[in-house]
Design goal:
The chain is α+β, with helices and mostly antiparallel strands. The protein folds into 2 domains: 1-18 and 101-171, Roll (PH-domain like); 21-98. The protein is 42% helix and 19% strand. It has a 4-stranded antiparallel beta sheet, with helices on one face. Strand 2 and strand 3 form a beta hairpin. Helix 1 (20-59) packs antiparallel against helix 2 (64-95). The two termini are 21 Å apart.
Length: 171
């Protein structure tokens, strides 16, 4: 079950990894919130245009432009339906490699910082991600928090990673 939430404040999380099922569920919610609604509206608009071009083609069968525009509308409806599914598949393929990554998070009440835990032998230092929790959209699900930082990025914080000794419960 999903509900709007605030993250508890904690110094440092337990090291954690994110299972593929969490990514799958989190991305589906992210898409539903930011992409599917817009796509549904656009599909309805193209559907209405398709119907109007069909009616125009029935009234004047010699008007080839109506047939071309009907095909364009049908193609747009298909793309708006297909692209989110294709995107979900490609994202899941991409995060399969991240399933073994280990993370650590810190939350001071205003900023959630997420750092990939690296071995000492790794030369390139990966900078931490910083998310303002005052402006982020945070959803509490059964096993994790979904943190949406605008329409471009989402983060998953498993509840099991949050230490039992929470400093202060966020208000």
């Amino acid at each position: 079950m999903e509900k709007t939430a605030k993250l508890p404040i904690f110094e440092t999380s337990k090291p954690y990894s994110i299972p593929l099922e969490f990514y799958r569920e989190g991305f589906a919610i992210f898409q539903k919130r930011y992409l599917i609604k817009r796509n549904s509206i656009m599909m309805a608009v193209f559907g209405l245009l398709l119907i109007s071009f069909f009616v125009a083609a029935v009234k004047n069968p010699s008007n080839t432009m109506c047939y071309i525009l009907m095909m364009v509308c049908a193609a747009m409806i298909f793309l708006l339906w297909y692209n989110p599914r294709k995107m979900r598949r490609s994202i899941m393929e991409a995060v399969k490699g991240l399933e073994q990554e280990r993370y650590e998070a810190h939350h001071d009440g205003r900023v959630l910082r997420i750092q990939i835990l690296q071995n000492e032998d790794e030369e390139e230092i990966i900078p931490e991600s910083r998310i303002s929790t005052e402006t982020a959209d945070i959803q509490e699900l059964e096993q994790f928090y979904l943190i949406c930082n605008g329409k471009q990025m989402f983060y998953i914080l498993p509840k099991a990673a949050i230490p039992e000794n929470i400093l202060i419960e966020a208000e």
